Amino acid sequence: MKNIDSYLLDDEAMQRFIVEGYLTLNSDQPREYHDRIYNELEPLEETGPMGHNNLLPCVPDLRTMLNEPRVVGALTSILGPGYYLHFHRHDHVNYPDGAQPLHKDGDNHSHHAVDDLRRYHKTRYAMLLYYPQDTPLEMGPTGIVPRSQYVTRRAVDKLKKLGDRHKSEILQEIRESMDARAFHGTNRFQRYAEMEEEFIVRCPELIEEIEQASAPWEEAKIPLVGDAGTVTIVHFDLVHGRYAANLVGKQRHMVKFLFSRNSEPTAPSWNHRSADWQDIEQDCQAPVWRNVWSWHLGSEDSTSSTRSVENLSQLLLSPEDDIAIGAAYELGSMGTGLDVLWQQFISDDPEVRSVAAYGIVRAASRALPRLIELLETADPGLQLRVIDVIGDIALEAGSATSTLVSLSNSEDVKVRRATFEALGMVTQTDEVLAPDVVAVLGKGLDDEDAIVVRNATFAISRLGAKASSDSIIDQIDRNLSHWHHHVRGWSIEALQRLENPRAMELALSYLMSARWDPALKSGDREATAKTMREAP
Asked: What is the pLDDT of residues 506-517, one digit of tens each?
């Protein structure tokens, strides 16, 4: 691969990504490449084994685009060196007249949002969206909402959750009224269509409320139009969906790849010249942007709000998500603002406490003593929220390690899940892991809960060689046959990052046995005296 230094983003492009939540590139591959990719995608199944997470084995030449220096340079700038190509990928096909509402991708592939609301703001996950065909407006391009990546959509999500409960009840009624074969294979799509039709009949008022709450987001979305080879990299939590119906009578493919950061930043990973934040404009999200910029630099955010605590306390309770979150960050920048944040953080209102948590993360090490104290006496629900904040603080929260180790034995499965994820975050800069941390990580690999196992494996993958032991390698090897595909996916990555010859051999052995040959049949051409060449 070419040296990527000249392809790294500069300060301006990096700050623009932090603010807008996306950037667009053009692949260096010729038109013939994109045409070939399009044709190879056409016969695949969008959600079946021939496609979906198996896209790369089915269309291995997609890696050519992923390995372009321009693409690698942008991803390295955003996610740091050694980023991970996640095992989840998807070819989103916009069939003629297809539609998809605006949404944030499900958090099951990244960090599970506490209270179904609090996602991490820091750029630990990103998605790459690739068009193998020209995608004008009439072909139904993907639509995105710029600057939406840090904003919780509390009003919309609350209504949609209510709608999802109604849909689940309707689907269960349909399931109970039919033979199980009615849901086999592609039959399930017809059942889902019937569910949607019944939902429209039963819940017209709720649908109208959802549409009204969604209207501002729909108005703010923009289309990602572009020629074949257009590549857009977005923050994982950017709001997106199909911009419009496909009206051209030809399938539109948008191939989505997910990437994750392997380690917290300790220095800039782009062509960095100045630490100054260029105030693009006055915006209520500006405190968030500046803080994320400092995090990417690997430095402390030294800014402090000049507004009164009383004013910010009122703004914290605003129903406008961006205003409330901006106020939380400002309160977190002030010593006197923490008391307000604590009061809301321990409240029974999930919408307010999820916003307050962002301000506590902003306070970082100043909040740690109270966070650790809370863990000692809190019920599991509050423990979960505290651990989530500690994991988000990450490198500055190393003093919480021993408390996290003790909570790895919690009977509450959500507490254990959060604990193992946090352990992989707060110990990253430890030169040597304490023996009890290594022992706990190994124990997590054998937990009865698949997500605990996944998070323990993810933590080991992040920590690399210092988390390696013979017993951990043996357990990860056994987990290559785990029933949950997330565990299998992270196990492969962990084995490769342990810097251990036996671990690497186990990973390669598994990958060779799982190798997928895209050819329908091989070795069936007679070897004659003529030179054997590729068939035209």
From this structure: 999 999 998 877
Any idea which fold 275-364 has? Leucine-rich Repeat Variant (1.25.10)
Residues of the chain with CATH 2.60.120.620: 1-145+222-272
User: What pLDDT does residue 96 have?
Assistant: 63
Residues in the chain with pLDDT values less than 50: none
On whether the CB atoms of residues 125 and 63 are closer than 8 A, the answer is no
| The pLDDT of residue 469 | 97
C-alpha closest to that of 78 among 292, 301, 359, 358: 292
Spatial CA neighbour of 230 closest among 471, 38, 375: 38
d(CA 292, CA 287): 9
Q: Which CATH class is domain 1-145+222-272?
A: mainly beta
- Does the domain made of 378-516 have the CATH classification 1.25.10.10? yes
Q: What is the DSSP string of 203-216?
A: -HHHHHHHHHHHHH
Looking at residue 99, its pLDDT comes to 60
Strands laid side by side in the 240-242 sheet = 222-223, 142-144, 240-242
* Contact indicator for 246, 97 with CB cutoff of 8 Å: yes
| Sign of the dihedral defined by the CA atoms of residues 493, 150, 354, 361, in that order | positive
Please give the pLDDT value at position 520. Answer: 65
Pairing type for strands 22-26 and 125-130 reads unpaired
DSSP per position, 399-413: GGHHHHHHHTT-S-H
Q: What is the separation, in whole angstroms, between the first and last Cα of the chain?
A: 29
One-letter amino acid for residue 465 of the chain? A
